[in-house]
Amino acid sequence: MEKVSEVDGIVSVTIIGGGIAGLTFAAALAQRGARASILEARGDDVYRGGAALAMAPNAMWVFRRLGLADKICRPGSRIDRYLFVNPRGRELKSLALSDIGHGWDEAAWAVPRAHILDTLMNALPHGTLCLNSPVTGLRWDHDAFIVESQNRLSRHHGVLVGADGIHSIVRQALWHLPPPKYQGFFALRGIVSHTLPNSHQDTVVQVWGGAGEFGYSPLGPDRVYWFATIPWPDPNHPPQREHFLRHVHGWFDPVKRFVEDTPDDELLIHPIFDRLEPFSDRPFPATLIGDAAHLMTPNTGQGACQSIADGWVLARELATSREVGAALSSYRRQRLGPALGVGRRSRQLGRIIHRRFPLGVAIKQGMLLAFPASAVVGVMREVVGSPADLGEPVC
Ligand SMILES: Cc1cc2nc3c(=O)[nH]c(=O)nc-3n(C[C@H](O)[C@H](O)[C@H](O)COP(=O)(O)OP(=O)(O)OC[C@H]3O[C@@H](n4cnc5c(N)ncnc54)[C@H](O)[C@@H]3O)c2cc1C
């Protein structure tokens, strides 16, 4: 039986899941002089692949305070513009993104996911991360959590944090909440070698046509990250590359080329779920962060950004509150409302994007054109929020 000891006055912390949420939280704790122990199901491969992530100003603000922002951005691209085009490549709307970071004083970036994970992992004290440690059972027993992993039971005192993503065993075992809901579409993603023209080196291009979406962004000077979604009836029988190629048949070059050039083993195809039921405080010291707390569709590009914000706030509350129960409760009150609000926005946006319009794509494009650019930027700003959503003073 393992007993986790108290460290530097902050109660000991066990984190289940070493993805973006778990690693950011552990790095934020380490910055405050506290240590956590992370049980991660997968081996080294967890930190390979995974295409790229848009890191909005809220996430970059946290990384800056962790002293990691410059390292995180290094292989990525700063994104200053969003360009909506039709399937022939004709411009529908162009948005300057300089305004969305208002209050954060940070820009948005596109960064390889593996690089973000690697940077966070390297910021942790040696021995924090236990790979190949899938948690298969969990319960609260009077004064400690009993954790089952690799056919062994261990006893964990202190705080337990579920950062175990979409199929969170912590959420199931300690909150008994319903599973995620399939949202009726799949996402496809890849990274290809390609140099975009200079005028597009800071631009996300999004094709607004048909049901679903397609977009791409620079990822450093000579790579491109592309992402797409298509409506699909059955989460258990995924679409293949060919289905998607049919969907974008006749679209402007290089859309088809990006999809064709992505190697098989790097083409990511995932069914999209969300889960927006709130969790409550419990009579034992446990909480949830990241997708385990508020799984959202990728339509606002905020799932990881909100997870990073969770990690920052939870570490701060644990380090500054007098009592663990008060710290967990304060974290939950500050973070859950804003994150679930973003999740609802994402769901609404996903429904519009994946709707089949009876009069065709012209209606969908008309809707986009009808919104002034300032209104679209206003929605983006609302989604990215402000430091107040992290309980921090607004500058
Ligand atoms: C198509 C797509 C595009 C996206 N694009 C963006 C974007 O551009 N920007 C953005 O901010 N977000 C984006 N997201 C969302 C983002 O990927 C997630 O919100 C983010 O990865 C959540 O991080 P997490 O740490 O909570 O979960 P995860 O990244 O899923 O990590 C959970 C970890 O827990 C481990 N684990 C699971 N179960 C156990 C167990 N029983 N025992 C031990 N370990 C366990 C897993 O192996 C994993 O390492 C996108 C999502 C999708 C699907």
Give a brief description:
The chain is of the alpha/beta class and 395 residues long. The chain contains twelve helices and 18 strands.
Overview of this structure, please?
The protein has one domain (13-180, 274-390): FAD/NAD(P)-binding domain. The protein is 33% helix and 25% strand. It has helices at residues 20-31, 57-65, 69-73, 113-122, 169-175, 241-247, 255-261, 291-294, 303-320, 324-353, 361-370, 373-384, and strands at 13-16, 36-39, 52-55, 77-79, 81-85, 91-96, 108-112, 129-130, 135-141, 144-149, 152-156, 159-162, 181-193, 203-207, 213-218, 223-231, 268-274, 286-288. The longest helix is centred in the C-terminal third of the chain and has 30 residues, at 324-353. Bound molecules: flavin-adenine dinucleotide. The site of flavin-adenine dinucleotide (FAD) has 34 residues, from helix 1, strand 3, strand 13, helix 8 and helix 9.
- Number of structural units classed as domains: 1
Indicate the low-confidence ranges by residue numbers.
Answer: 1-8
CATH topology: FAD/NAD(P)-binding domain
The arrangement of helices and strands along the chain is: EHEEHHEEEEHEEEEEHEEEEHHEEHHHHH
Evaluate the radius of gyration: 21 Å
List the helices and strands and how they pair.
Layout: E1 13-16, H1 20-31, E2 36-39, E3 52-55, H2 57-65, H3 69-73, E4 77-79, E5 81-85, E6 91-96, E7 108-112, H4 113-122, E8 129-130, E9 135-141, E10 144-149, E11 152-156, E12 159-162, H5 169-175, E13 181-193, E14 203-207, E15 213-218, E16 223-231, H6 241-247, H7 255-261, E17 268-274, E18 286-288, H8 291-294, H9 303-320, H10 324-353, H11 361-370, H12 373-384
Parallel strand pairs: 1-2, 1-12, 2-8, 5-14, 12-18
Antiparallel strand pairs: 3-7, 4-7, 5-6, 9-10, 10-11, 13-16, 13-17, 14-15, 15-16
Residues 16-22, 39-42, 46, 53-54, 134-135, 163-166, 169, 187, 189, 270, 290-292, 298, 301-305, 307 line the site of flavin-adenine dinucleotide.
